[in-house]
Amino acid sequence: MVTSCSAACVTSNHVKPVQHNFPVKSFIQLRSDTFWKGCELNKDGKVQCQNATSRAVSSGSFIKNSEVDTSVSYALTAGHSCRSTFLPERKIAGVMVTHLGQKFTVIDYNGFKYEADVVAIDKRYDLCLLEVRSVLIKHPVLKVAQNSPKRGELAYNMAAPHGIIFPRMVLTFDGYFTGYSPEGYAMYSMPTKPGSSGSPIMNINNELIGNIFAGYRSMENIGVASPLMAIKVFLKNAIAQAEMKVWSRINKNVDKTDTQMLEMSQKIHKKMSEYFHIKGVVNFGRKPSPL
Fold it and tell me: What mean pLDDT comes out for the span 11-28?
């Protein structure tokens, strides 16, 4: 006997391919080195200090090359990967621990390393933009999708969970977009582990549609991601802000009027709006937090 079914049984127009060409050359691993100094009294009553370094790793992607300085590129990752929550000083088991600062290093697909600075952070949707310096050869950038994914749409992910990545080898995953949480976060049926934070989610056209920043310990095949519109507006505002700083840095010895600065700012914002397909949109959620 044939049993009828609801519309959920209708075959999708998209068949899952047996092979997919991932845009792996746009992928990055971010290393955050935190520097510490610990001081305590020794047996002789003298202060004895030691320095230490701790390292955290996360994922990300090259998202835009600077149009102002050819040696600068921009990378997208998770906000908590860039934000320090450490106290400047605290006492632990009799040891006075001082936080000395952080250093960010971007590692590209070929294993080459670049110094990076944090440009802006969006705490609401856990996003971070990095300025990557001393880039000799422009990396392929991950294009941002024009439209948000539909529920049930196939999605791909490039990530370095637990820091697992090697030169010319990036782990790749797939899953489905399942909708939004009450907080407005995009939910995907996709595996996540520590180190996956900041990893890009793409559609079948290799366009960015989400950015993973969290998961669930009790069920690892769920990825929580920043929604596409939040990403687009954040990138538009943050990159425009960064490009203005780069332009001002290059032209620091040139006299500039307020009118020239305003015209340059408007020109850059217009370009970013067109590039990220958000013409007419000013903001979404909270503004990025400049550092």
Answer: 78
Distances (CA, A) of 137 to 143, 158, 162, 169, 207: 18, 22, 28, 20, 22
Secondary structure element (H or E) that encloses residue 38, with its range: strand 27-41
Q: What is this structure's pTM?
A: 0.85
**Over the stretch 21-73, which tens digit does the pLDDT of each residue have?**
999 999 999 999 999 899 998 888 889 999 999 999 999 999 999 999 999 99
Q: Which pLDDT tens digit goes with each residue over 179-214?
A: 999 999 999 999 999 999 999 999 999 999 999 999
Half-sphere exposure of 101 (CA within 13 A, CB side): 4
Other residues' Cβ atoms within 10 Å of the Cβ of residue 45:
6
Closest CA to 105 of 68, 130, 71: 130
User: Residue 104 has which token pair?
Assistant: 């960010």
More confident residue, 10 or 55: 55
Residue 117 CA, chain-centre distance (Å), reads 13
CA distance 167 to 72: 22
Q: Which of 20-29, 82-91, 256-265 has maximum average pLDDT?
A: 20-29
- 277 Cβ neighbours under 8 A, 6+ residues apart: 144, 146, 232
- Token pair in block for residue 134: 């001393």
**C-beta of residue 160 within 8 angstroms of C-beta of residue 26:** no
Tell me the H-state helices in the chain.
Answer: 228-250, 258-275
User: Looking at this protein, which amino acid is placed at residue 44?
Assistant: D
- What are the backbone dihedrals phi and psi of residue 152, each rounded to the nearest 5 degrees, phi first? 90, 0
Q: Which helix (H) or strand (E) holds 224?
A: strand 219-226
178, 181, 185, 186: CA torsion to nearest 10: 0
Using DSSP bridges, classify how beta strands 127-132 and 186-188 pair: parallel, antiparallel or unpaired.
unpaired
Cα-Cα-Cα-Cα dihedral of 196, 73, 201, 221, to 10°? 0
